[in-house]
């Protein structure tokens, strides 16, 4: 999970922090340059480079004075948490007392980055909250510099919320190349890419821009103008991994990437539910079918029959994710509110008392938290099932 920048962070503070860290490293006997520290700091705060981090800092006005002071982190945090938890009356009271708070930037209530309230409402799929924020004056294009450059329209598309996207566009939200890629609007993509990579904005989410493509045409055009499939986003996912995480609609995109010479890993096939491809790989190396990454891919995307087959091939029902959280397959199924997957894993020996490595929480706790964070009522069924199974 990325750190969040201090509310009043500026370039002078950033440079001072980098130099102080460099002195610490050198005192420890480490051979390092200032550029190494700058890259480390950028990645700590969720940016792909020092340049991207600098670009996200507030810009002084034309007279060179600082921009007006933003609402305090405490107030912004209070608003964002109330939005994320769906507390409509609290949000109304906060905005009535401080109308400018609607566009305040603050720490994310559930994970890293510094979004605005409208970003959080989209991610938590809270339609009444979204409408309230728009009526209160939320900016439809958002201020996305401290949220990895994800605009509200982009978030609405990435979270598969077309109603949000439609309302934002009705109110005049900007549609640039990144939004057009996520919309699958090949006409706009073609028009903007006539000028090659110069049309690709530098202030875009980390990782390869190919991860934002939603049509085979867009993949081809981006590769034709020189976009690289290499590079990973802030969560360590490559472009082809990101596309495989779209589920069934990602299958033709992954296949197109492969046609253009990009290699797919076994876990990508698991996310797509492609048993035939996995069987072919497993014929040459049976260990692939017992890979924890492959098991997690099947669980994360609800491929029940595929998981049952993998378990019959010796897969571990207590497989863990490779990321920082280190959650088990049962944690992921519980978070998704996938009761059928939970039951399948438990019937094959999954440990309901296992804890993740980051929070020390059980699958039942993950399901309970997901009810609030992802606004998924199916998680309540998982909580009830796991409580019954508890010793």
Q: What's the structural blueprint in terms of helices and strands?
A:
Blueprint: H1 11-27, H2 34-44, H3 50-55, H4 73-84, H5 88-97, H6 117-123, H7 127-135, H8 152-158, H9 162-170, H10 177-183, H11 186-192, H12 216-224, H13 239-244, H14 251-259, H15 266-272, H16 275-284, H17 292-300, H18 304-312, H19 329-336, H20 339-347, H21 363-373, H22 379-389
What would your notes on this structure say?
- The protein has 391 residues and is an all-alpha fold.
- It has 22 helices and no strands.
- It has helices spanning 11-27, 34-44, 50-55, 73-84, 88-97, 117-123, 127-135, 152-158, 162-170, 177-183, 186-192, 216-224, 239-244, 251-259, 266-272, 275-284, 292-300, 304-312, 329-336, 339-347, 363-373, 379-389.
- The longest helix is centred in the N-terminal third of the chain and has 17 residues, at 11-27.
- It starts with 10 loop residues before the first helix and ends with a helix.
Counting structural domains, the number is 5
Span of the ends, CA to CA: 32 Å
Mean pLDDT: 90
Tally the helices.
Answer: 22
Please give the share of residues in helix.
40-55%
CATH class designation of the largest domain? Mainly Alpha
Under the CATH scheme, which architecture of the largest domain would be assigned?
Alpha Horseshoe
**Which residues form runs of ≥5 with pLDDT under 50?**
61-69
How many β-strand stretches?
Answer: 0
């Amino acid at each position: 999970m990325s750190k969040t920048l201090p509310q009043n962070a500026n370039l002078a503070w950033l440079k001072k922090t980098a130099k102080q860290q460099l002195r610490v490293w050198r005192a420890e006997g480490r051979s390092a340059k200032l550029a190494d520290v700058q890259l480390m700091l950028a990645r700590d705060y969720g940016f792909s480079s020092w340049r991207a981090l600098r670009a996200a800092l507030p810009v002084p006005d034309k007279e060179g004075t600082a921009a007006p002071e933003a609402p305090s982190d405490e107030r912004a945090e209070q608003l964002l948490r109330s939005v994320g938890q769906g507390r409509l009356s609290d949000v109304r009271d906060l905005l009535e007392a401080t109308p400018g708070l609607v566009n305040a930037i603050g720490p994310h209530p559930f994970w890293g980055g510094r979004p605005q309230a409208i970003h959080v409402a989209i991610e938590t799929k809270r339609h009444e909250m979204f409408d309230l924020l728009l009526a209160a004056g939320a900016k439809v294009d958002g201020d996305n510099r401290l949220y990895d450059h994800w605009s509200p329209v982009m978030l609405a598309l990435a979270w598969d919320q077309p109603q949000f996207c439609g309302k934002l566009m009705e109110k005049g939200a900007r549609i640039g190349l990144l939004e057009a890629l996520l919309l699958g609007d090949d006409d706009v993509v073609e028009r903007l890419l006539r000028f090659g990579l110069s049309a690709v904005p530098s202030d875009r989410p980390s990782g390869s821009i190919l991860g934002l493509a939603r049509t085979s045409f867009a993949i081809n055009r981006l590769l034709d103008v020189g976009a690289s499939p290499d590079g990973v986003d802030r969560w360590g996912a490559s472009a082809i991994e990101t596309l495989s995480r779209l589920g069934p609609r990602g299958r033709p995109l992954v296949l197109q990437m492969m046609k253009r010479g990009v290699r797919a890993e076994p876990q990508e096939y698991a996310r797509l539910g492609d048993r035939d491809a996995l069987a072919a790989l497993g014929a040459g190396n049976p260990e692939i079918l017992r890979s924890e990454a492959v098991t997690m891919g099947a669980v994360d995307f609800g491929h029940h029959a595929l998981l049952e087959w993998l378990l019959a091939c010796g897969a571990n029902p207590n497989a863990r994710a490779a990321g920082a959280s280190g959650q088990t397959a049962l944690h992921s199924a519980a978070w998704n509110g996938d009761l059928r997957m939970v039951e399948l894993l438990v019937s094959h020996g999954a440990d309901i008392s296992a804890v993740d490595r980051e929070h020390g929480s059980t699958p039942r706790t993950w399901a309970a938290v997901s009810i609030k964070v992802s606004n998924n009522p199916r998680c309540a069924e998982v909580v009830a099932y796991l409580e019954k199974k508890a010793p």
